[in-house]
Every structure is written in C-alpha cells, then in structure tokens.
Amino acid sequence: MTHHLPDTKVPAPCIVNTGIIVNKLDMRRLLTDLGRVQYVYILDGEVHSQGEGDVMEVFASPQRSTLVANQALYLNVHSFDYLELKQTPEKETHFDLVQEGWRLRLTPLSTPLQERRERNINVTVIEAMMEQVMSARWDAEFDDDCSDMF
C-alpha cells in the first residue's frame, strides 16, 4: 500500500534580524552587503583571532578557501554549514558563520545604505576626474591642431 502526500507548497522562510540561514544563496546575499566589519574567529568557544577588515568578495565555490588577511575578507559560503543571524541587547546585528567547532563572527561597522552612498560618492568623484582628464586631453589636442595650422 502506498501513501500519497497532498501536493502542498511550503512557503519560503521569513527571517527578521535573528535566525539560522542554511541556503548558500541566501547566505551570499546577506554577506555581499557587508562592507567594513569587525571579525572574531572563535574555536571551541575561545577567541583565536580578531580585528577589522573589509569584505572584498563573497562567493560560493567548493574548491576555494575563505581568507582573512591584511584587513581583507574573502568569504566562501561553502566554508560554512550555516549562518546564524543574531542581535545584541543593544540591537547590534552580527553574523556568525558556523562550521563544526568554530565560528567566524562578523559585526558590521556600516550599513548597506552607508556603503551604497560611499560607492556612489566614489563613482561621482571618479567620473568628475575622468571628465577633467578628457577635457584637458581635448584641449591639448586642439592646441596641437591649431599650432599645426600656423
């Protein structure tokens, strides 16, 4: 005798400020918005390393490592079993990337909105500089063309 379960759809989870994320795509989406962070590497409940750094890259690859060096973090979601999203009593969010007996705790030092604003400001500054360089180049070419006429 076979039993057939009804064709039901389970809604996707909704996680607000606290929870456990196991889906690698969701982990990557959350981590990608991080900019500058404070990190703590905890092994069996004991702090082994800590510091500040910038999240440079977040990726998913079974062949590559997560790297934390020279104030730069390269995070591979395949290095971790899950991401635990927590808030302190002061409402400060931190992300615990967990793998067996160790965890990499990331505490953001900026918000995604602040990071976007900073990137937009940097792009605007670069665009203005490029405009000045191109204008100077065109002026120099124009001067060269004019001097060839006389």
Architecture overview:
By secondary structure, the protein is α+β, with helices and mostly antiparallel strands. The protein folds into two domains: 19-110; 111-150. Helices cover 31% and strands 35% of the residues. The protein contains two helices and eight strands; from the N terminus they run βαβββββββα. The protein has helices at 24-32, 112-149; strands spanning 19-21, 36-43, 46-59, 67-69, 72-76, 82-87, 93-99, 102-108. An eight-stranded mixed beta sheet has the order 1-6-7-8-2-3-5-4, with helices on one face. The longest helix has 38 residues, at 112-149. The termini are far apart.
Characteristics of this structure?
150 residues, alpha+beta, 2 domains, 31% helix
Q: TL;DR of this structure?
A:
The protein is of the alpha+beta class. It has two helices and eight strands. An eight-stranded mixed β-sheet has the order 1-6-7-8-2-3-5-4, with helices on one face.
Total domains: 2
Q: Per the principal axes of the C-alpha atoms, what is the gross shape?
A: elongated
- Widest β-sheet, arrangement of strands: 1-6-7-8-2-3-5-4
Count of discrete alpha- or pi-helical segments spanning 4 or more residues:
2
Per DSSP, what share of the residues sits in E-state strands of 2 or more residues?
35-45%
Average residue-wise pLDDT: 83
Structural class, from helix and strand content?
alpha+beta
Q: N-to-C SSE series?
A: EHEEEEEEEH
What does the radius of gyration come to?
Answer: 24 Å
Please state the oligomeric state of the protein chains shown. Answer: single chain
